[in-house]
Amino acid sequence: FFQYCLSGHPTLPCNVLKFKSTTIMLDCGLDMTSTLNFLPLPLVQSPRLSKLPGWVLKDGSTFLDKELKECSGHVFVDSVPEFCLPETELLDLSTVDVILISNYHCMMALPYITEYTGFTGTVYATEPTVQIGRLLMEELVNSIERVPKAQSASMWKNKEVQRLLPAPLKDAVEVSMWRKCYTMPEVNAALSKIQLVGYSQKIELFGAVQVTPLSSGYALGSSNWIIQSHYEKVSYVSGSSLLTTHPQPMDQASLKNSDVLILTGLTQIPTANPDGMVGEFCSNLAMTVRNGGNVLVPCYPSGVIYDLLECLYQYIDSAGLSNVPFYFISPVANSSLEFSQIFAEWLCHNKQTKVYLPEPPFPHAELIQTNKLKHYPSIHGDFSNDFKQPCVVFTGHPSLRFGDVVHFMELWGKSSLNTVIFTEPDFSYLDALAPYQPLAMKCVYCPIDTRLNFIQVSKLLKEVQPLHVVCPEQYTQPPPTQSHRTDLMIDCQPPPMSYRRAEVLTLPYKRRYEKIEIMPELADSLVPLEIKPGISLATVSAMLHTKDNKHVLQLPPKPPQPPASKKRKRVSDDVPECKPLKPLLSGSIPVDQFVQTLEKHGFSDVKVEDTAKGHIVLLQEAETLIQIEEDSTHIICDNDEPLRVKLRDLVLKFLQKF
Amino acid sequence: MTRECALLLPRVCAALADPRQPGSDDTCLEKLLDWFQELTLFDSTVQLVQDNPCLTEFITSVLALPEPSPSILSFTLRLAGILAASENRFQHLQQEKLLARLFGRDGPPNSAVWEDASVRSGWVQGVHNMMHHQPALHLLCSGGGIDVIFTLQGDPSLFVASAASQLLVHMLTLSVESETTKPLSTKDCDWPACAQMIIKRIEDSLQSSSASHIEQSLKLLTSLFGSCRATWTEVLWLGVAKQIESFLTEETVQVQHMLANLLLNMAWSPVFRDTEGSFWALVTSALEHLTPVQAGPLAVGILRLYKCPQDVRIQALTVLLQPMDCILRAASQPLEYAGLLDESVSDPVTVESLLSSRSSCANLLCQTLAHLEQLLSLSRLPVDLPYTSLLRSLMTILQFCNGFLSPASPLGSTISRILINCFRVQRSALDVLAALSERKGDDTLIGSLFDLLLAYLESPNTSPTVLKKTFQATSKWLVRLQELSCSNSQGQQTEKILEDVFLVLQKRLCSPCWEVRDSSLEFLTVLIKCLRDQDEFRQSLLSSEVPRLTENLLEDPESYVRASAVTAVGHLAFITYFAPESPVVGNQYNKENTVAKLQEILSTDPEGFPRRAVISIFIKWLRQGCTGQLEDTEQFVSRVIQTVEHDLDWEVRLGGLELIEVFCSQTICQLGLPQCPYAPVSSAVTSSIHWNESLQVFCRAKLFSFLFRSLCDCDKPVGQRACDVLLGLKSNFYPVSTLEGSQGTGDSAVGHGIAWLQRTLRQGSLAQNFPTDGSNGVDFQDPENMMLALGAVELEELHDELNRSSDHVEKSPQSLLQDILATVGTIEENEADCY
């Protein structure tokens, strides 16, 4: 078993598993942190951004000043943002048979894989994953395409040039692999390769392997996967949550008895408890609005926003915020809010029961009805007519590099009354804010990450007890900024195997068994012999037939008829001839009785020595040695065949034959 | 016993002894026993049993029952014990051998009902009740009762086991004190027979190999030494001391956990405390040998003693501080801090191993912290604690708990892993921290202490209960900080800290969790109470957003929060509106608005808590003279009274009465009483001119209708309070010498009105309606009417009536006997129906 690790990002994994004869890709997350090196894409001309000075090298060379701009001491690439793809050189991705997707955040690189690598397989994912994944991709493509940028920077990527750049550009990895965003047709083509699956549905892959998605409790339709054959079980845990939020709870029981458990997608902020963060979010929001300021919440169009809206639904009346408008701006805002209400079977029990009342499972329906929450595809059009301040705006993208959020940052950044509250944990908020500096608005960082923390992982591992754990290397040591927090790493026995980007891992498990079926006729012909109570043996002569990774023992072909004519070669000639078999022996030789028997047969000088593995019987006169061990007996005598045969027969008397 | 009761008693006894009757209500039986206890307490004669032969008959008939019900048998045993408490009655009952049959070996202990714990408990209590004289002692000792009691020490019912142990202590004491003629000494152990039996049993079981037997004896000794301080206890002790000492090092019998209590009780007894040497050596040895968790209670107990050898005290302090010392050492570089303890006196290995285990770490720390808090709460501490190191250690614990500390040692890393997010330890440490603020120590740490407290206040991971404790500790240390900044030039530091506190408070006041909003408001109130005289505090508070947010919370959806907001706003007013310089400018809320807002809450809030809070604040304002000139105050009180008099919550109405009380006393103080208090007031009553000005004010403020109506309030505290207030007024307006002259009400309409009032008040809370509009001839706003009413109404009588408990009729023994008979009666009636 091999695991090819194509991504170094622990929460945006992309691994390829060679399991038996199949090649399975587990997730294809897209690392978007590369976009933080680029200047934001403003929706309307931003005088501030366009006036930023070009970056000049220390020696005064200005050849990069068109590509790189400087803002408050940081250097940014002035070009369309690019993304860091999973590793494509480690193995031929066209050989991947299937791709298993665990949640909508972990499929953003799908078009790059399915449309650029010659991939011909199938992608498996649940319906909400596909639908919401599509929304995320649509929003991404839309945000980037609607602000066309004439210029594309590539000079800085030259290795020689990159060395001269300031951090973090200097340290950016594999910049040559960075790609521009895919297009909508590519998205559609990629999504058309997806086959929808439901929780606990068993999917056969070439007869060799069965894969099954399980609820992971993290997001609508999010799944963990079981990959198993008859004797091996690999669990792939990616982005799971044990908290009670909107999705169906995590299925832990099915992960038991795994030989290998691949663990990815833990919380990115292990020190922040989501409940505390939601409290923090609400308090800061209320404080800002009460002081007459606006609140900007950069977010994805699906996921935590549902929970935030639910909290706010309960909170706004009590905080006296009933008259403050909440705006949700995204090209897919409407679809996201509506989709969430129709995936009843994927929701937690409480929400499912609401559907039968019938009531919308999420309270944001009521917020919309009462006009407290309004949603718009973009800041253009209706929004500009309805816009009232102070207000709260939810919009993307959380990287602050594209999407409507760029506009609000430019608009509200100058006033200290306003606050931007970061709730998505994917991007460092300081890096996200860098091109907007100097900034007067308040910044609050309340990352809400409901994925498993290390305490929960430790409980989970105790519960499901996998033989081996495989995880990204980041989880095997405390976070670099808090090196004393040894509680913030995976602690299990045996210690987990870790992997990093572009590494190939041999999974610590050996195949020992394979299931083979016996045809009924063949089974009928067997004559088992009980050699120990409860254990019977029989010798089998049969032909092994293997097709589609299924193995069947069939009756051996009948002994070949004497050829009717020598001219024609018969098919059965290919079958190897069956020789008569020697009987098999079983049982053990009681040394004392054996010695007595020898004496009876005239060997008078028998001497027995004990060895580590058994006994040595010495016949001194005959210069013969009989080694009796648990699973073998050797008679060593010098060229006296009759003696050997005689002794052999005496030995055989003590053993069973069949 | 009254004649009525004596008449009822035979029927009651017959009914109770009747096996056909269903088991009587247990509470009735308990009350009956209480009554007999009362009857016999100061009467040792046989009169009671002689006059009421039914009692003896009752016992006889219960004994004759083949299968008495457990509850009746238990009752009988206890009753017999109460009756036999005096030697005379004991002999009387023994004439028929009743007591021997009840408490002898062949009595209940030998029957099937003994299985029932209530019978065993009744037996033990019966014996205990009886055990006041030698005949009782002899009855038990000779009848094999001692064996039964010793067996009962291990009874599965904890109540029985503990009662048996207490009984043995009682018997031992009684035996020694009533049967010894000369003082016992160590050399001559001439114990009385009964005592000897008990002591022999104790010694035997201490030497047995059964841990449960040893535990029972240790328990017995513990309570003996706890209750009896006679010198003979030392003689007893010397006989068992060696054996008990061996338990400290014994590994086969695990009874060490019992020793701390035993030694502690002994330490409080002057018999042992004042001896030189051996006892204290044993205590020292116990402090050494017991595990830190077992030794903790002993150590803290020792430290509370004023009479204790210094070296033992130091040893106890070492035990107590060792975990704190370990924490300090684990967190710091070697030699960085001296630690809390001198290394030579402490062996940290055990404590270190306990602290590095997940299961024991939090327990040990919480216990140690609780003990420290206990010590710090003592006003006079017989020992000096190293306050600065203790503070450092506490801060270290709190830093471990929130993961802020990167420990330098492996032990530190282990402890850190265990303690991160451990709320229990956080709460205990914060409690001690708060208690420590009142002790003088080195203040160099105060800056970093506030950094830590602010980090806790700031962190979203702080749980609401921990946050509350943090608020408490912060408020205490802010007071300390203010004291410091007054005495030296730390003004800037104080200002910065206060600014940070208000910034975080501002955020907490907006929390979606109501408990957090509530404790934030409570915190603010405490701060204002303690620090409102400090300029720095006032300025920081008023320049923050906190006052405005607090006023917003008057409309919080959670009633507890509204109540706390009312209290906070009420206190805030002392700084904003009532302060002489009144610095608030441009605030949307001015004084009038705030008062109006609070009055609105008082009249419209659907929940009781906010309304109670408003009335309390109004009382506070009135007491502190914040409600302005007398005319303003009169209007204010009148308005408030009219709002609260119909409030559904009795505490609010009670608050209204308190407000009246304060107002009345202030008014009378201001206006003074009649010029000549000794002049006959009767003349004033008849004359319509010189009315006492105060009375006019009270009538104008419409106090009397509320006061008189409250006398009939269905909630008794309200009636009592109103009566007290009226009595107070009466004593002011009718000094003793003039009271007689007030009685004449004549035959006028007013006279009829007063008569109506008297009639109505007599009905008390049963009065159906109480019109105060004058329709009954009493004008509650007319000073003349009210003067007459005050004189005429028998307020003193009413006062006694109201102070009698509401069940004074039902509580009488007669009523109890009737109740028992009533339940019997129904059975008889049913029987009649059947035939």
From TrEMBL, chain A:
<dbReference type="GO" id="GO:0160240">
    <property type="term" value="P:RNA polymerase II transcription initiation surveillance"/>
</dbReference>
<comment type="similarity">
    <text>Belongs to the metallo-beta-lactamase superfamily. RNA-metabolizing metallo-beta-lactamase-like family. INTS9 subfamily.</text>
</comment>
<dbReference type="InterPro" id="IPR048660">
    <property type="entry name" value="IntS9-like_C"/>
</dbReference>
<protein>
    <recommendedName>
        <fullName>Integrator complex subunit 9</fullName>
    </recommendedName>
</protein>
<dbReference type="GO" id="GO:0005829">
    <property type="term" value="C:cytosol"/>
</dbReference>
<dbReference type="Pfam" id="PF10996">
    <property type="entry name" value="Beta-Casp"/>
</dbReference>
<dbReference type="Pfam" id="PF21382">
    <property type="entry name" value="IntS9_C"/>
</dbReference>
<dbReference type="InterPro" id="IPR027074">
    <property type="entry name" value="Integrator_9su"/>
</dbReference>
<dbReference type="InterPro" id="IPR022712">
    <property type="entry name" value="Beta_Casp"/>
</dbReference>
<dbReference type="GO" id="GO:0034472">
    <property type="term" value="P:snRNA 3'-end processing"/>
</dbReference>
<dbReference type="GO" id="GO:0160232">
    <property type="term" value="C:INTAC complex"/>
</dbReference>
<dbReference type="InterPro" id="IPR001279">
    <property type="entry name" value="Metallo-B-lactamas"/>
</dbReference>
<dbReference type="InterPro" id="IPR036866">
    <property type="entry name" value="RibonucZ/Hydroxyglut_hydro"/>
</dbReference>
<feature type="domain" description="Beta-Casp">
    <location>
        <begin position="305"/>
        <end position="433"/>
    </location>
</feature>
<dbReference type="GO" id="GO:0032039">
    <property type="term" value="C:integrator complex"/>
</dbReference>
<dbReference type="GO" id="GO:0090101">
    <property type="term" value="P:negative regulation of transmembrane receptor protein serine/threonine kinase signaling pathway"/>
</dbReference>
<keyword id="KW-0539">Nucleus</keyword>
<dbReference type="GO" id="GO:0090287">
    <property type="term" value="P:regulation of cellular response to growth factor stimulus"/>
</dbReference>
<feature type="region of interest" description="Disordered">
    <location>
        <begin position="550"/>
        <end position="575"/>
    </location>
</feature>
<keyword id="KW-0963">Cytoplasm</keyword>
<dbReference type="Pfam" id="PF16661">
    <property type="entry name" value="Lactamase_B_6"/>
</dbReference>
From TrEMBL, chain B:
<protein>
    <submittedName>
        <fullName>BRAT1 protein</fullName>
    </submittedName>
</protein>
<dbReference type="GO" id="GO:0008283">
    <property type="term" value="P:cell population proliferation"/>
</dbReference>
<dbReference type="GO" id="GO:0005634">
    <property type="term" value="C:nucleus"/>
</dbReference>
<dbReference type="GO" id="GO:0006974">
    <property type="term" value="P:DNA damage response"/>
</dbReference>
<dbReference type="InterPro" id="IPR011989">
    <property type="entry name" value="ARM-like"/>
</dbReference>
<dbReference type="InterPro" id="IPR016024">
    <property type="entry name" value="ARM-type_fold"/>
</dbReference>
<dbReference type="InterPro" id="IPR038904">
    <property type="entry name" value="BRAT1"/>
</dbReference>
<comment type="similarity">
    <text>Belongs to the BRAT1 family.</text>
</comment>
<keyword id="KW-0963">Cytoplasm</keyword>
<dbReference type="GO" id="GO:0005737">
    <property type="term" value="C:cytoplasm"/>
</dbReference>
